[in-house]
Every structure is written in structure tokens, then in C-alpha cells.
């Protein structure tokens, strides 16, 4: 995939195969779901236990919400769902958009190589700080 073409690739895939399809991700058969209804189905369905390919688990870690089960999953999902309600998200979109744009300008644009994991951790931290929910500290 060429640089900065991921969105076009996803849109083309959805046009060709629809919002639900099967693909091979890092050599592992994977179900590809898109849209708000699919997200709600995955995150709200207690009977569904999604499993990530081992390569994704190595990248994201073992304690992501998708890897959690039982009471741990319910507790984390409940906390996340409070933050992801549409009326709540409307209040945060502008702040998040500004943080992502600023982060890209400062850390990604005009660079040949970037260290993605530390930059994404920093971006996540900056977004949380800018939303003012958890920290009063602002990274420089």
C-alpha cells in the first residue's frame, strides 16, 4: 500500500465487498466490519468474543478491550461507552481534530522515518490531557 492511501483502500474495499467481508490480515483469516452498527454489535454483544491475530496482539498488547473477557471486559466497556456516546463525542471532536493535526505537523510531516508506537502514545496522552478529563498537565 502506498503512503497515505489507506483511506482510499478501505473505501474501495467497502464498495467492492460491502461493509462485511473476509480478508487475510498478517496471514490470519479476518472478518472486516465497518460502520457504527458493526462497532455497536462488536462492543455490545456479550456472547461475541473477538480474537485478534497473534501479530496484532504483539503490536497492541494483551490487555486491550478486545482481548479482555468477562467482568474485566464489562467494566472497561462501560467506562469507554460513557465516553463514546454521540452527544458526548460532539463536544470532543474539535479538540481531538486540533490535537491530531498539531501532532502530525510536529512529528510526522517531512520525516522519512517515524517511530510510530511512542508517537501514538504521546498523541493519546495529549488528547486525554486536552479533553481535561483526567489530567491538568500539558505535554510540551
UniProtKB/TrEMBL annotation:
Highest taxon of source: Eukaryota
GO MF term set: heme binding; iron ion binding; monooxygenase activity; oxidoreductase activity, acting on paired donors, with incorporation or reduction of molecular oxygen
Keyword Iron: yes
SUPFAM superfamilies referenced in this protein's UniProt entry, alphabetically: Cytochrome P450 (SSF48264)
Keywords: Iron, Metal-binding
Keyword Metal-binding: yes
GO biological process: sterol metabolic process
The protein's name in its UniProt record: Putative Taxane 10-beta-hydroxylase
Naturally occurring in which organism (per UniProt): Cocos nucifera
